[in-house]
Description:
By secondary structure, the chain is mainly α.
Amino acid sequence: MAQPHGQPPPQGLARCYRHPDRETGIRCTRCERPICPACMIAAPVGYQCPSCVAGGGPGGGPPARAARPRTLAGGVVAADPRMVTGILLGLNLAVFLAVLVVGDRLVTDLGMLGRSLDTRTYAIVGVAEGEWYRMLTSAFLHQQPWHLAFNMLGLWFLGPPLEAALGRVRFLALYLLSALAGSALSYVLAEPNVLSLGASGAIFGLFGATAVLMRRSRQDMRPILVLLAVNLVITFVWPDIAWQAHIGGLVAGGVIALAMVNAPRRGRVAVQAGTCAAVALAIVIACAVRTAELLG
């Protein structure tokens, strides 16, 4: 609820004037009203709110000619900040329904597997045998409804704020690279004949990115840190969880988000793209070394 005029503000961080449920330490450089990451538009100095960019200030006026709406990370401000999140969620649901229709054969063919014998064909299969697609397809596979539900719940709550703050392209890059990093660490550290699947690596990447974004916006980090700690405890206590995927995704998501939200305005795209390329290169090198080890 918005603060009534004339009453003293509540203690703690201010709340975004467009999203009263979100705390923030950032203010528009023109009208000085508090704005959350979803409302931040990069300006020559600091950040401006959508009202000032569209109407020249809170009182209206000619639009700011040089200020094109941009997200905190420099992406284009989208009318629907949940579009990519919704597409990713839909893909996960569609693949889950396909598994229900086709059966476990789809899981065996698309799940994350380093190198093992396929008992149906007696052929050696896995990433080491050139089936690199498993590193990505496994991130959209789920067998159990509860597994799907937990991951999609995390995607739905963490995805939209990140998508709004980063922009669609940057958010998608963060999600996919986190998923690949999780698969890569599983490939390097897990037993090669153990099949793993699920979007958990990507979701942990969103956890890492959310922590970075909240710190950048000077928000209270205790909720996300507690939630992350609980999930890490479950990761290492619950049986049959691919902890490697969780850690790989978490680290990649945090590193990419750091570059996304802290890159200097001059050369920002180069820093962001370079960081994503460096993460991708690290994934490729780690997988190449592991493949040589398994085939050697």
